[in-house]
Structures are given as structure tokens and as C-alpha cells.
Amino acid sequence: MLLNTSEVDVGSFLLIGIPGLEHMHIWVSIPICLMYLTAILGNCTILCVIRTESSLHEPMYYFLSMLALSDLGLSFSSIPTMLRIFLFNAMGISADACIAQEFFIHGFTDMESSVLLIMSFDRFVAIRHPLRYSSILTSSRVVQIGLVFAVKSILLVLPLPFTLKRLRYCDKHLLSHSYCLHQDVMKLACSDNRVNFYYGLFVALCMMSDSVFIAVSYVFILKTVLGIASHRERLKALNTCVSHICAVLIFYVPIITLATMHRFAKHKSPLAMILIADAFLLVPPLMNPIVYCVKTRQIRVKVLEKLGLRSK
Fold it and tell me: Which residues are listed as membrane-spanning (predicted)?
């Protein structure tokens, strides 16, 4: 009896590095490793400073802690796989590990998107109701908001690994990134993947809706700022938003760029797609601590004090 070998249970997948630059992978691993270590050090420093300094026990800094935790989660769930590829040319990843990785990457991505949305609401409340800010965003309310959005992110992406496990895969094993993504794995299936497609689209729309609500928040913030009589106070109010705006741009620009290239580019460069996709997971965890340390005086002062570069 002949066996049907066109539809099999795939035990592993193959990830890719940078096509055409395989001979330079060892050199590419050096900046990636430095970015990874810097991201971990930066976000852990932010968490440590906020935890140990009572003057930073305010809603804005609690939300910044959530952003740092999301960045650490993104780093730990994706960058070690990249380093394994570039350092040791180890392209293989088991199917179960791949499905688990895509769950954590999508989960922490949605969590970071949610935290950026919460932070925009925080900035609106701080500018619109400065005298009631502490009474509106109490510590217990901040914890509740954080837990609600964390649970939302988990529940939103929880079906993804189960929908991938139910698929049957052909003899195609090669993925198109240095880490596992739901849409990437889904394309290798030779069974009906419409459920995966529509649910994946739903998850993507939920995440992009966060960016819409962030934009709406800034419309209200701008409206409030324009109502302030003093020019100096207007600039002071807007300056409190600069760090958050930078974090939003750092997070969403690669996503929007990738989506635009997928949709409109007639001759997409695989190299450009891979580099932007890698930057999406490398840059936000690296840059967010730097941006907040540079643009937020309270964080900068406390970090310098911890490093012994500034007297208390």
C-alpha cells in the first residue's frame, strides 16, 4: 500500500538568517548580541530604579514598568533564537518550540501595544485633570488596569497555538524570518487554514485599533493643550508626552512599514522585509529605556545616582 507523503506531521521548521549574507552571520551576531544585552540591562535598570525609589511610585512610572516588562518579554522570547542562527548557524526549531515562541511573541507584542495605549490615557488625564490625577489613577486602579490588559493580551493570542496545532503540514519546512510568527507558520500548511487566517486578521486588527485609540487620545491632548493660556505651560505639557510619542513611533513604524510593503510593494525585497522584521523586535526593547532616560528628568537623575555619576 502506498503512503500519502504529501501531507505529513512536521516535527521541525527551518528559520532563516539574512539571505545572501550567510558568510557574514558571525559578524551580524555581534551588534545583535550587544543590542540584546543593552536592552536587558536598560529595562532591568528602569524596573530596579522605579521599584527602589519611592518618589517614582506614581502611575506614569508604574506604566513605564509595564512597558519595560513587555520589552523584556519580547527580547527573551525572540532574540536568543536569532543569536542561535547567526552564531551557530542552527536554523532548525522543533514544531512545538516554534508554536510556543509565536504565542509569546504575539502575546508580548499585543501587551506592549496595550501598555502604549494605557500610557496615552495616562498622559491625557495628567494634562486634562492635573489636580485630580492622583485620585483618578490610584495605585490599586493602575494595578487593576495592568492586570485587565495583561489578561486580555493572553486570551487574545491563546487560540493561535491551538489553531496551528490542528493544521496538517506538507513537506515545506522553511519559514521566512529569524523567529516564528503565526502567519509565517500558517502559510506552510496544506490543510484548510481559513480559521487561522481570519483569527490572525482579527488579532492584527485589535492591535492596530490600539494605535487608532492612541491617535484619538492625542487629539484630545492637543485640544486640551491649545486651551492653556500660557505658551510656556503649553510647551511644558507637550514635553511630558515626548517620551511616549517616541515609544509609539519606535513600536508602530516597523509594523506599518511591513504592512505597507506587503500590501502595496510590487517587487518586495526579501532582505528589506527580514531586516525590518528583525528591527521590530530588536529596536523597541533597546530604545525605550534610552528614550525615557534621556527625556524624563526624574528617571535620568535616579539612574545617574544609582550609577554613582551624580550626588544625591
Answer: 24-49, 61-83, 103-121, 142-162, 197-221, 242-265, 271-294
